[in-house]
Amino acid sequence: MITVLEPATEAALAEIPAADEEQLDAAVARAKESYPTWRALAPGERARKLRELTLALEHHHEELAQLEARNVGKPIADARAEMAMVIDTFGYYAGAPEWPHGDTIPVAGGQAFTVREPLGVVGLITPWNFPLLIASWKLAPALAAGNTVVLKPAVLTPMTALRFEEIASEAGIPEGVVNVLVGSGATVGQRLVEHPDVAKIAFTGSTEVGRQIAAGAAPTIKRVTLELGGKSPNIVFADADLARAAAAAPGAVFGNAGQDCCARSRILVQREAIDEFMHALGEAVRSMRVGDPLDERTQMGPLISAGQRETVSSFLNDGAPIAIRGSAPDGPGYWFAPTVLAPVDPGARAAREEIFGPIAVVIPFVDEADAVALANDTIYGLSGSVWTRDGAKALRVARALQCGVLSINSNTSVRVATPFGGFKQSGYGRELGPDALDAYSEVKSIFFATS
Ligand code: NAD
């Protein structure tokens, strides 16, 4: 049995049975059996089923948000916004079965054209920080493209995925098309990656586990997409609207208690603006409301687990000065106050490793070239921000940064209709937007002789 905890209270939320490898094999067999029928549905019929699922999710919006807020310890306002994006993601891809695709290609002696075919059974492996949101970015395009799925959520946060499976069934998604299995990564996850009947693994999680997934998928030449870790820069030039940049910075790194792959955890500030920026940042950090996730006014909740708090705490012991410290509740719960280390040497561990907690580092820079060099000096390349009033400079820097998602005078990273994913060791493949469908289908080239 797995005891699922509420990180804000350390109380048990649920006891659920842990699946083993045999149950994983059975789930893959169910998905394999249901594939031919799901794939053969007329496009309009598959679209209708996905629209019905979207409506069912909308009906359960508040229930799912409450469950996610309690299981992850995230503020209820954030959980509601995430569930709204889950619904929008299904709504967007519900139309996809009927989107035009393929090309006609001029060749001699006949007609050549391409079609897209689904892959078959797709394995989805997700992390604990945005459980149903990240699952929806995989589930919706995978199902729309005609695949059937086995989803393995993180053991710490399986609740909304399990509820999703029930809602999908109630909404009329045929038996065996969506299978959710809760079990450890090392056993059930590994088996899913190696399973000969699984055509593809879509993984979101740490870079370390991503390497194991890529290696485990190699013997069966599985398709793999990887959304991995990050250490994203938030570059603030002296000519930026400093008040806006500073007011927005805490949300961009302390949102979800810093447990966000897109967290702008390296704040790079041009030297001449550093005093003014730090003053405004201090006010913004100290005014953050950290506390009960179910309180409507809460902006930051606890960390996911005692182990995560220990890992995050270890970054305070490396000698980088604590410049700003917010507040956090005492007592039960895995609390950690929002913290800014400054100034931090770019070579320090806190400036190089993904902390995945509410610690930001501030690194001063001299000019545009220095900012770009510092920002790119990392194994990661997920997201980033540039703050400046100089449009040409913003575009130059945006093109020079090695990352998959970038925002100018904003810290946003994800939208349903735009592609999301990383450069370098932040992974490969893209989720969301029209591009995601390519990751759940193969191109087939057909030649029809006319002579
Ligand atoms: P994790 O890598 O420890 O686990 C992710 C999932 O993989 C879990 O379901 C886990 O059970 C499973 N797993 C673990 N070992 C496995 C194995 N050998 N074979 C198959 N599956 C296995 O990550 P986490 O701690 O749950 O999440 C935090 C990490 O996820 C951070 O590094 C964060 O940056 C990353 N993340 C990335 C994105 C993105 O889109 N790029 C989004 C969210 C989180």
Architecture overview:
There is one protein chain. The chain has helices spanning 21-40, 43-59, 61-72, 76-94, 131-144, 159-170, 185-194, 207-217, 242-254, 274-286, 306-313, 349-352, 368-376, 391-400, 435-438; strands at 2-5, 12-16, 104-107, 110-118, 121-125, 148-152, 178-180, 200-204, 223-227, 233-236, 266-270, 322-325, 339-341, 359-365, 383-387, 405-408, 427-428, 441-449. It is α/β, with parallel strands linked by helices and 451 residues long. A 7-stranded mixed sheet has the order 12-13-14-11-10-15-16, sandwiched between helices. Strands 7-6-5-8-9-17 form a 6-stranded mixed sheet, sandwiched between helices. Strands 3-4-18 form a 3-stranded antiparallel sheet, with no helix packed on it. Strand 10 (233-236), helix 9 and strand 11 (266-270) form a beta-alpha-beta unit.
Which stretches of 5+ consecutive residues score pLDDT under 50? Answer: none
Average of per-residue pLDDT values: 98
Gyration radius from CA atoms, angstroms? 23 Å
Strand content: 15-25%
Shape: globular
Q: What's the arrangement of strands in the largest beta sheet?
A: 12-13-14-11-10-15-16
Structural class: alpha/beta
Distance between the termini: 66 Å
Give the distinct bound molecules.
nicotinamide-adenine-dinucleotide
Number of helices: 15
Percentage of residues in helical conformation: 25-40%
Tally of strands: 18
